[in-house]
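hey can u check if this looks right to u? its 250 residues, i copy pasted from the old doc so theres a chance i mangled smth
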Amino acid sequence: MSRYIRELRDRALAVRLALAGRVHQYPEIQALRRFLGAFAVDCVFDVGANRGQYATMLRKDAGFGGTILSFEPNPEIFSELERNASSDRQWHVFNMALSDFDGMASFNIMAADQFSSLRKPAGEQDAVFADRNRVTRTVDMQCRRLDSLLPELKRAHGFARPFLKMDTQGHDLSVCEGAGDVLRDMAGVQTELGVRPIYEGGTSYRAMIDWVAERGFLPSAFFANNKGHFPLLVEMDGIFVNQALLPREG
């Protein structure tokens, strides 16, 4: 019976997403529903939150009821994020960037704000990105390493099993490097995987998969993170599980 109910729920979700023009998000939501529940995740680090679209999806679609900590450097977008989180007592927002150092940095505001990044756009990119992924101005922004910040946040919010999601436009590897040894405290990691990187110095998907694997995180799910740009895939997302949480073989 439980399986039947689950399948009905999944079909209802697919219909709702299709009607909203969001059917491409179905694989991500399904993967997150299963992962966050199976591994008892009680806090999600939402790094590169923009207006809070991911956090809203966690609440409304993935059924996540734990703590959400959203980080957004863009001061203009942050005000919208703050408003969107204001009615949720377990959703906390921070106007800063996570990186591999503590200090100030120049943050690039792009023509389309969802492309804003600590990195500069690549010199060559598809025409579909050329107008949107260009620097319109820069702002000075506070950056923190996750290994120096996480103990403060644990004391403040009392979580035990966090999950790290990153959407930092070419900067995800730097966020992971700034986590240092506390990366192993994460139940899982969700990261952008650039098949055709659109930022200078962007990490390729193969390099990112190898990097997290070397630190004990194994692939759990892969899915396109947008509607795609046929016929060539530009980016996808990957969810990786901390292998310490998996049953030991033998």
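The beta strands are 43-47, 67-71, 91-94, 97-99, 103-110, 135-145, 162-166, 188-194, 217-224, 235-242.
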